[in-house]
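Weekly sync, protein design subgroup
Attendees: M.S., D.O., the rotation student, P.L. (late)

Item 1: inverse folding check
M.S. brought a backbone from last month's batch and wanted to see whether the design step gives back something sensible before we order anything. D.O. pointed out we never logged the input encoding, so this time it goes straight into the notes. Structure tokens as presented (434 positions):
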């Protein structure tokens, strides 16, 4: 078998056999097939796509390039929720304790943030001494006690994805839907769960800018999961503005804690309630959204979900008192207020621009090597649909280093789009694909 013949076949839009996929991926991992041939193959996939059978096999082969995490000692209904990456996305912080409080457990691998989107690891690492589980044993111990099983990615999880992703990054093949689907699902299938819920963000701040692309990506990921016997559901959610009010790290942990005390932003609440509803429905515990809502309301009102978050933080090495005393979190030195210079209704808050405004003051990473300043971030004072006058406070920027503060402020001003008419009926849950 020769790599060039496999590339030729994909160029002609013919379906590859399992043996051909084995040859290509094993050869690339062992560095017997060079980057230039893999690049050419990836571009052929970009233009010609992959069939269901090819994509499923390709994904499993990617997964099996490294460690997989399967348990025989976690006796829960295990839910893996994955977000395709948003701005202000603190869903995992809130969702884990709620799923646990209603009788399930989360098992998922979490990552660090890069570019304009944040990562769950960075948010939790705002808490002094907090350490994510790095071994299966640690995850099982904490998940058995709290129902929250989060683990950081290691280099041994799907190493082929790291290698291929780096190549896609420099060969203009990142935005290929089958390649994104296999990249995400290879990592989802590397850790055991009963149900995978994919929160596919749609809009300005998201990987998928249009509903059509989001639908196609969702359909491909659901197809992969379901065809290997892992129930998979995609929830398409709105990213035409950041989720909630805070964008950063420590401040997103605070917003998550406040949500567990019942103080929610509407959009965050809608997304979290929908995901919990879907999990309860698939577990066979509820039929309607209203039934699920009552169950969730109850574990918020009785403090059970908050208590589980506190325990999870303590077992991960942090001080659980943080849920009552926010001064235990890193605090920024200065605040800059940003005022509107327009009048009307806010029609959009460009999430990507807001993510970048937070990144340039240190809340995110421009490159993988950058250090995050956990204390800094943005607080939105207005959301889409709100009315503004000239001079109204629209956002606060919390910072330590003033180096990029002016460009951050300009990005915030540019992000707020003001129009004459109020946007009505903002939908946060756009579609469900299963
Ligand atoms: N996230 C991933 O893990 N992989 C992609 O290809 C894109 C987003």
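Designed sequence read out in the meeting:
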């Amino acid at each position: 078998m020769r790599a060039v013949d496999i590339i030729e076949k994909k160029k002609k839009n013919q379906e590859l056999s399992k043996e051909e996929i084995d040859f290509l991926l094993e050869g690339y991992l062992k560095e017997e097939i060079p980057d230039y041939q893999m690049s050419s193959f990836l571009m052929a996939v970009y233009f010609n796509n992959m069939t269901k059978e090819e994509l499923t096999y390709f994904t499993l082969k990617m997964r099996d390039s490294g460690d997989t995490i399967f348990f025989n000692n976690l006796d829960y209904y295990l839910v893996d929720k994955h977000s395709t990456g948003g701005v202000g996305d603190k869903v995992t912080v809130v969702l884990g304790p709620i799923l646990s409080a209603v009788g399930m457990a989360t098992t998922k691998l979490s990552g660090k943030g890069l570019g304009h989107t944040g990562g769950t690891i960075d948010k939790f690492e705002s808490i002094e001494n907090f350490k994510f589980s790095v071994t299966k044993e640690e995850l099982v111990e904490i998940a058995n006690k709290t129902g929250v099983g989060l683990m950081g990615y290691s280099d041994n999880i799907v190493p082929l994805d790291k290698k291929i992703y780096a190549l896609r990054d420099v060969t203009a093949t990142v935005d290929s839907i089958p390649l994104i689907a296999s990249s995400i699902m290879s990592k989802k299938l590397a850790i055991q769960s009963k149900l995978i819920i994919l929160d596919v963000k749609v809009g300005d701040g998201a990987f998928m800018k249009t509903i059509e692309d989001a639908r196609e990506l969702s359909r491909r990921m659901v197809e992969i999961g379901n065809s290997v016997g892992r129930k998979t559901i995609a929830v398409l959610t709105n990213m035409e503005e950041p989720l909630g009010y805070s964008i950063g790290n420590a401040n997103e942990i605070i917003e998550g804690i406040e949500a567990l005390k019942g103080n929610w932003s509407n959009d965050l609440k809608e997304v979290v309630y929908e995901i919990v509803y879907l999990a309860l429905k698939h577990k066979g515990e509820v039929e309607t959204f209203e039934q699920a809502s009552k169950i969730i309301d109850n574990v918020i009102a009785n403090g059970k979900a908050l208590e589980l978050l506190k325990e999870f933080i303590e077992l991960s090495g942090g001080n659980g008192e943080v849920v009552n005393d926010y001064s235990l979190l890193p605090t920024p030195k200065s605040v800059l207020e940003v005022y509107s210079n327009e009048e009307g209704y806010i029609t959009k808050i460009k999430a990507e621009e807001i993510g970048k405004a937070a990144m340039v003051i240190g809340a995110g990473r421009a490159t993988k090597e950058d250090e995050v300043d956990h204390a800094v971030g943005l607080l939105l004072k207005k959301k889409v649909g709100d009315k503004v006058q000239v001079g109204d406070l629209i956002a606060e920027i919390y910072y330590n280093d003033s180096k990029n503060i002016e460009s951050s402020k300009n990005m915030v001003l540019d992000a707020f789009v003001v129009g004459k008419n109020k946007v009505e009926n903002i939908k946060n849950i756009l579609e469900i694909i299963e």
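Discussion: Residues 359 and 365 are 6 Å apart (CA to CA). The pocket of uracil is lined by residues 165, 180, 183-184, 207 (CB under 6 Å).
Action: P.L. to compare against the previous round before Friday.
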